[in-house]
Design goal:
heterodimer, A: 7-stranded mixed β-sheet, 4-stranded antiparallel β-sheet, B: 12 strands
Chain lengths: 116, 117
């Protein structure tokens, strides 16, 4: 149980275009999802907290107009990287908070974004 | 803001050796503690967690961790490692009563563990 999927697993796009990444909780409802960015050989950097039905809460330094987050249902959150630039190339990981009163997070497999 | 420190960035050891990875955090209130593992090419998986109760928690694959409140520590241990334990290990902390109330986790920098045959 508690499986989180991400789509796509890998995407290459041209500079200036937008890319949407989906995060789904497959077998549970997740009122809260999180988006992280992971640089090579580094830890996860939390970008934003996504709550179903409300606006996402962004961490300091993360541009909310650039990284649009939509948590439209209890099983789906999307991250759209708008007007992507090469410096946005990274590994993006989502997680979903487990059901019930748990602080445990279940992680997706990540999406490798390359902006050319 | 609270922080999470992992003391070792890179550990190399032989099979059957014992492993201990340090994790310290800075928050003085109630915490929920986690160790996650990321095997090469795979996503993060939960090794073990501590919410309350017995400070010595056992996780999957023979791992255990001990919460020492007075030391703000949550060190991970395994008595005898295997080659398949080669992975990156992350300590994570959720600080109750803060902006972490939605379940936000603060991650340590990670420790790359390499087990040689």
């Amino acid at each position: 149980g508690a499986v989180v999927s991400q789509h796509p697993s890998r995407v290459i796009c041209k500079s200036g275009t937008s890319v949407k990444i989906e995060c789904r909780s497959l077998d549970f409802q997740a009122t809260t999802m999180f988006w992280y960015r992971q640089f090579p050989k580094q830890s996860l950097m939390l970008m934003a907290t996504s709550n179903e039905g409300s606006k996402a809460t962004y961490e300091q330094g993360v541009e909310k107009d650039k990284f649009l987050i939509n948590h439209a249902s209890l099983t789906l959150s999307t991250l759209t990287v708008t007007s992507a630039h090469p410096e946005d190339s990274s590994f993006y990981i989502c997680s979903a908070r487990g059901p019930g009163r748990t602080y445990e997070q279940y992680f997706g497999p990540g999406t490798r974004l390359t902006v050319t | 803001a609270q922080s999470v420190s992992q003391h070792n960035h890179h550990v190399i050891l032989s099979e059957a050796a014992s492993l201990e990875l340090g994790c310290n955090y800075s928050y003085g209130g109630t915490v929920n503690l986690f160790w996650y593992v990321q095997y090469p090419g795979q996503h993060l998986q939960l090794l073990l967690k501590y919410f309350s109760g017995d400070p010595l928690v056992k996780g999957i694959k023979g791992f255990e961790a001990e919460f020492i409140k007075s030391k703000f520590s949550f060190n991970l241990r395994k008595p005898s490692v295997q080659w398949s334990d080669t992975a990156e290990y992350f300590c994570a902390v959720n600080a109750e009563g803060t902006t972490d109330s939605w379940g936000k986790l603060q991650f340590g920098a990670g420790t790359q563990v390499v087990v040689t045959p």
